[in-house]
Specification:
The complex is a heterodimer of chains A (about 475) and B (about 100). Chain A is an alpha/beta fold and about 475 residues long. Chain A is built from 15 helices and 14 strands. Chain A is globular, with a radius of gyration of 25 Å. Chain B has one domain. Classes of the chains: A alpha/beta (about 475), B mainly alpha (about 100). Chain A: Its cofactor is pyridoxal 5'-phosphate.
Amino acid sequence: MTQPLGRAGARLLARFAKSSSVAECSGAAGTAPKVLAAAQAGRQFSALPEPIEDVPPHPATANPAAAIPEELMEMKGIKLSGAPLYLDMQATTPLDPRVIDAMMPLMTEQYGNPHSRTHMYGWESEDLVEGARLQVAALIGADPKEIIFTSGATESNNLALKGVANFYSGKKKHIITTQTDHKCVLDSARYLSQRGFEVTYLPVKPDGLLDLELLEQAIRPDTAIVSVMMVNNEIGTLQPMKEIGAICRKHKVFFHTDAAQGIGKVPVNVNEMNIDLMSISAHKLYGPKGIGAIYIRRRPRVRLEAQMSGGGQERGIRSGTVPAPLAVGFGKACEVARQEMAVDTAHIKKLADRLYNGLNDQLQHIVLNGPQDQKQRYVGNLNLSFAYVEGESLLMGLKDLAVSSGSACTSASLEPSYVLRALGVEEDMAHTSLRFGIGRFTTEAEVDRAIALTVQHVSKLREMSPLWEMVQEGIDIKTIQWSQH
Amino acid sequence: MPGTAEVRSLYRAFLRESVKFPNYNIREYVKRRATTGFRQHATEKDTAVLDSLRQQAQADLEVVKRQAIVYHLYSRKQKSVMDIPLATMLEEQAAAAPYSQSSS
């Protein structure tokens, strides 16, 4: 491992040494291909990437058997033979290399404050941030002026709910959301309910879908905003956005959606769906953590009260310097998502089917939580309950598999997820749920490995379980009268 | 036709660069995406489309080359579990399972 790194490092150093003289002429001298220059148009003065020299192949590909020294990882008292395979794409996604590539110049040469109006550093930074805004807008069919950069979907959700509720608080006193929405929406609603607003938490059907009639009945003349999550983070339910949008428009109520899990994965068009406000997070679509956006419709105009006072950046709605490197990464991630959506979706669907069928072929009593119809769910999220297995033991056993039992926000607690409870999933099944998240960088081999490991551990845990023994003997566990202790 | 040989060498360049990624997932992605991409447009006849595709591919190849270096600079010391054969892994786990003592 040290040798190739050393060689690559030496080459890099040599390159840096001569780069100062090469940098100015590389574009004109023709060493950089024309395409590169075209791709970098707009970055005239600095940070023009050069074609690079060779890096040696990684040892794992050259000689899979013995090339890498055995270095055991030990974290939190668990010994790992290697980096676990990542199947938690709903918690966060790895950065796409194209995104890193777009961000690098802003982390080295182009460090200007995008709000500086008096020098080149500010101007070039502003151009890049505005370019990113255009890329984000293009993905959702919006106007760039309707995109406000924030720190992420949590801030966007807070801004949407509290901002709209406070701005219209003179006439409107009612907010509608669902029981399965994200914690930050529910908590913002709770905050508002303590300050005189009335909140309706709509129940959902057993597959997590919202009952549209129930929604229409819940809307009142003083309803300010309806907030419904586009794709659920735990079970992947895809809500009927178009229908909900139409109902809200009909009753002249603002429609907000938390689309953090949906953007870049399912096609979204804010005009077709009649969305008035939408929260987006970059790190769920292979972008950097720490940035997101809120879409705020301009026609008909949605007005909201800013939650932070400051320098008036982002048209006064979200003060504070826009983190230009993150914004550019976010923009690039959106562009890549737009180009790759068809290829990604086909790949993810294939892998999700492979995983589900593979587990079902070898194990009995697996329940897919959420809608069974693939049209009503985001396919890259498989939330499965393994009956007669204790969820925590299973997670402990599957240490080579980075999966979670639900959302990352609540993964520390042993409580079963409130989302599953809202669906009416029984306590014992809710305790045994695992969420498999599949994404752009997941491979077929990883899915096969995940199946093998899960089958091994579930079978082993079931063998040890007295309940499983009783089920095998044909006893219906639900009819047993347990004695009191 | 503007150079089938050129297209082929471009495709081979992607495969050659992909093995340089120490990260298992990125390595496999570059390989897979190059294959699906080139296959998808294998029957493309329109020269204007082919031209823009080639330009895009060349720009992407530069990204791959640069990122192979970046990933190299910050690679993990340990390999991915995907670089360990499944059989070895299952044996190790059977030996060290947290519940092995109580079951046997």
